[in-house]
Amino acid sequence: MAARHSRARRWLPWGVLTLLLLGGALGLLGRGGCTEHLEVPRPALRPSPPPPELPESVVALPVELDLKGALAALEQQVPRVVDETEAWTPVANGRVGLKYRVERAPFQVEVQGAELHARFGARYLARACLRVSRTLCPEVASCGASGESPTLSLALRSGLSWSRDWHLRAKSGYTLDFPSPCRVTFLRYDVTERLRAALTPRLDAALAQLDARVPQLTQLRPRVTPVWQQLQRPLALGSGVWLALRPSAVQVTPPHGEGLRVSATLRVRVRPLLSVGRAPEVEPQPLPPLLPADGDDAPAQLALDARIGFAELGARLREQLRGRALSLQGHRLKIDDVGVEGSGGGALLRVHVTLHTGLLGLRRLEGDVYLTARPRYDAASGALVLEDVEYALGTEYALARYAERWGHETLRELLAQNARFPVRAQLERLRGLAEAGLQRELAPGLRLEGHVEAFTPLGVYAEGDGFVVRGQALGRLALHVDSAALLRPRAGQ
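Above: the chain's sequence. Below: its structure in token form.
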């Protein structure tokens, strides 16, 4: 009996202490417990670098020009007949008088390669007189007045090249040849040289007119500008998918002609982009200067962007993780919310947690913790994966004050396991839409034709309000134009 009383006396203080602690705990619970706020600094968001641009691609646009107007300009500028037989024209310091008549054949004009060639043949007659007084100049010699007339020939060559101002330039020169000279022998005077001097101003004026007319006949700016404007407009492919060609420059191959037609190929430099969401914003640009083409045509490279918004990523993670409770080294952690933002090209994960710690888990801490992750496209699974999940520096430091390594690894692993988002189907759908979108009429008389030959995923990049999984599709692009609509001459040409 005494022993029992002794043991009771020994355990009484511990029982009382236990009851007091339980009473205090129940009191705290009755008052809703004591909740502390996790003082974790929010990391500053860093701007994300833009996705790398693919090399420029080429959209080929064949053009053909008609130079019949050049022939008309020459025919108009050089008369078929030059007749100076009404009066004597003094030459050789007035000692000799000259009358002449030249009748030419029609011009023969054709374009060979990058040169315009024109020629004609002519016959002429010439008479010479010897002045013996102010009023008397008897005829002393003639050529072509009787018998077969002597001949002359003209050969004109005009080099054609493209100007930055969207037209052909012409630089012309000519040779005038007299196969059968006409000389007044006893005066030692060559009549053909006088003929050459008389014809040269007319021919010089004709060449100047030709060089001025060629740019007018081959002005492409008003004809290509509507095409350029159309290429800048995003094309709606349906279901929120857009194709933006994003033209930046136009190059042209050297002119090549046959007959009276000149052909060349315009190479429009583009960076095609297929994207999902709102229509790409495009600031219209004027038609740039025309540049000479460099290199051969290369396969077109089309960027395919499968976009997943940060809000969608956060919603998917919330659906999988909200309400999950973790037992962590004597503590209990519950995930209340998850959000995703972009920072520095990666992901910033915001996880709102409630941590129960301390004796009987009565100490409750609540707030946001932050983790960083790197996005990657996993080709094997076709998923966007957030990997290398790590606590942000401020979070790691702040949490160390509350609980030593309170399940850091467990939470990180849980996030990494669930941060996988399938995108393969979206990329394949984009590829199919790209194939269909490259076969379409852009405007009346203007059709885009292309096809996709290969597809390669390139990487994941933060852009705007989400991640972009960028792929590269290789193929060919060409423009087909109704020549009657695009190359219709302007009024006055």
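Residues 2-30 form the longest helix (29 residues).
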